[in-house]
Design brief:
218 residues; Glutaredoxin; four-stranded mixed β-sheet; two-stranded antiparallel ribbon; globular
Length: 218
């Protein structure tokens, strides 16, 4: 029986990149049951313009901090989990509704986890525009989509609206920040916690699932 793990992220959230990496490392090292991981949309800034929002300017205006100071702490945390990040590479945050729509539809193809990782790397490591249909088509074709399928999907108003509805529902449920993890539908962990915290959550959730097998499985 697979342990369900629901992960709420936004692709332009660096702590989500770190948190997702930590979760994958913990699951890879776990000696417990396999995990059925599903990623869900969360929009940190639904008002982001299509051309993107300048990150250094946003950090100074919103938080009154030097971007380099904020990045240095986060980069140090990333290195603890094997991620070599240089956050100065990506100057812009882009809208992520299209990317999340692709992620949602990748779940049925069984490629969602790999696609999420590639999207994080495209944004943070390669400094690509994850709102660009051409970029999404390039990534999508590596994970079970055709080019035409990606273009149709990320330009479909109904599909994009479904993603936005899902993101609003996540926020309405009480999730105020990401990453946010729910193990076995009952044990929640908020933030990019250290690997030992996630490991303990996986072990505890696996024990709960064994005692109550009615939880959702993959």
């Amino acid at each position: 029986m697979a342990l369900s793990v629901d992960v709420f992220i936004d692709i332009v959230c660096p702590w989500c990149f770190v948190g997702n990496q930590r979760l994958e490392r913990v699951l890879a090292e776990s000696g417990g049951p396999p995990a059925a991981v599903e990623h869900h949309a969360f929009l940190l800034d639904p008002t982001t313009p299509s051309e993107g929002r300048d990150i250094p300017t946003m950090l100074r205006r919103k938080y009154g901090i030097d971007p380099q100071e904020a990045w240095a702490r986060l980069e140090a945390e990333a290195r603890k989990s094997g991620l070599e990040l240089d956050l100065s590479k990506q100057r812009y945050n882009y809208p992520t509704v299209r990317a999340h729509t692709l992620i949602r539809r990748a779940h049925a193809k069984g490629t969602q986890r790999a696609l999420v990782n590639d999207l994080f790397r495209a944004h943070f490591v390669e400094a690509r525009n994850v709102n660009d249909p051409e970029v999404l088509a390039d990534l999508g074709t590596r994970h079970g989509f055709t080019t035409d399928e990606v273009h149709a999907l990320v330009n479909d108003a109904a599909e994009l609206a479904k993603t936005e509805t899902d993101a609003r529902a996540a926020a309405a449920s009480g999730i105020q920040g990401v990453p946010f993890f729910v193990f076995a539908e009952r044990l929640a962990v908020e933030g990019a916690q250290q690997e030992q915290v996630l490991r303990a959550a996986v072990e505890r959730a696996a024990g709960l699932a064994e005692r109550d097998p009615q939880q959702r499985t993959g």
